[in-house]
Amino acid sequence: MHTLDYWFLAGVAIFLTSALAHLTALWRTQGIAQIIAWRAQGLALVYWPLLLTCWGLRVGEEGLNRLLLGSSAWLVSALFWLSLKRYPLAPLGSVVSVISAVLGALAFLFTRPITFSEDVSAWALYVHIGLAILGLTAFSVSAVMSVFYLWAERRFKAKQLRTQSGVKLPSLITLDRLSLKGLLVGFPLYTLALLIGTTQALKSNDGALQLSYLVATFSWALYGGVLQARLTAGWRGRRAAWLTLLAFSGVLVVTLQYSVRS
Amino acid sequence: MELLILGLNHKTAPLHIRERLAFKEEEQISLALEANSLGCSESFLLSTCNRVELYCLTSESADASHPPADQVRGLLSSKASLDVGELNPHLYSFQGQEALHHLLRVASSLDSMVVGEPQILGQLKGAYERCRDAGATGRSLSGLMDQALTVAKRVRTQTEIGRAVVSISSVAVNLAEQIFGTLTGGTGLLVGAGEMGELAAQHLTQAGISRLLVANRSLSRASSLAERLGGHPRGLTELPELLTQADIVITSTGAHGYLITKELVAKTLKARKYRPLFLIDISVPRNIEPSVNDHENVYVYDVDDLNQIASENKATRAREAEAAEALVLQELERLKSRQAKRELGPVITSMRAQVHRLKEEELKRLEPRLLELSSDQQKAVKQLAERLSNKLLHEAFTGLKSYAEHPQRELAIEVAERLFGLKAPPTEPNE
Q: Which domains does chain B have, with CATH numbers?
């Protein structure tokens, strides 16, 4: 293993530590777990940019795969950190840390340089991957908010909640609004990524219909439909959350397939 | 100085007695000043709807024939225009550590009618500050109050005693906040003129709701209620239209049968653009069809649901109260220990002064002989004397402090005083 591989592994460990501590803190609101959770997340926010800079300088464009996935892991945490100033999202720290850890782990695992046929423009491919990963990040936020919305709404409907409990989630409206924000950011990015990907696929005669293309297009259409319904007809709540999760699972399948292939 | 608390509360005195002892702010100040003139060194009076308590510091050397407690008892009975014999059965008094414990419990809202309610801390602080500004209190009570406020804050942050709301109206507002986050900008609709509904609407208004609509069969009744609550009156026939505007609906009518049905709500959903709708049914018999809850983004809570949450919260508070009591006792022990160590202060100061004096005397006595030595040697001798006295004192202080909370603390102090020549030895009886 390359020396920097160990440093990537350490980065993933920091995210995992934060996730575990966040999960522990859900049951024990006071105490050491909460301190460890926030310290680890703070450390990750400083550590990952340094690591990615070293990696970029050392390996160059061959290491783009890792650079993009690592940046995405950092970006999810950084966005969450920033949103804390505005929304009471602290209990979601556990999920965000897990997402960051998964993206970090993917960055650690997929080290092979990106290969492409001569017909495909290198910059277009980089932009395509970059946009797709950023879109995925925004969609992840949206999906997480949808999961929490469904959980909180179910408890509310079933009257199982207490007016006070160990885990204090943001209000239903806040969760729904954040899910929409994730869609609003993710959809344009993902659309551009899809457009660039399609043109490059057609150029390289790789335009044969593949299942992944169909799934990606279906997810995109579903996201578009949900967004349209949300913005024009005022859709919100349970139905919108389920459809968001369905579209996200499609995007996730496509991403995993490409990651494994690379 | 010893803390004395004399008072009554909702547990010891019925309302007609508490009414007699309800003092206005200026009366509280004058009563505290009067208590000071009767032998207390510092005093303040707490007067709320559930308790009246006089907190004062009494000197241990107070006139034994006229104990301050009796004097203050007399003062309170004269202010209440009651005989001492009539008032006495309702009064309680605490002194010393018991009084400190009571103060901590009051400040932490453990002695309140609704355990954990937050108002008492503000009332206690306000009462103290009023009397302090009038010169009725001094440094000692200030120290005690600081400790009480710190303990109360610890109880509030380290336990969940104040977090679970226990009244139906507060539970309703709390639930609404869990749906909408902030209620600012929201619209409330009160259907009917029931007392509970009015109370819940008041809570919503206090929580920051921007617009309140009041609907009733009788428009004149709706108008008078709307005027009281700062809302807008509407007729009950407008209900379908009102449902498209409202975010939170409270029904509190005496009507038999459902006023808000599943079908009625279904018709409003599209016009509402699927905004969440929170319906609170406080009426018995119910006014909202329970199956309305099946609609997406619509939440129905009836009086039983609210009661269940309130009673669960009460149980939570009771559990947390136990934890809070333990915390108060722990803090009390800490304060006692700190106080006991502080009380050793004068003896320790005297011991240090005595040893210092002896050291200086010896050095002065040796001064002619020290002059024969070099300056380095002189310095070494002085350092030796300094270190020796410090080491001796350190051992003595450690030993004395270990007796700070010991039952034989007084004996230890006396022994130390005699050993260090601070007190003359007892005279031997002549044989």
A: 2-158 (3.30.460.30), 168-310 (3.40.50.720)
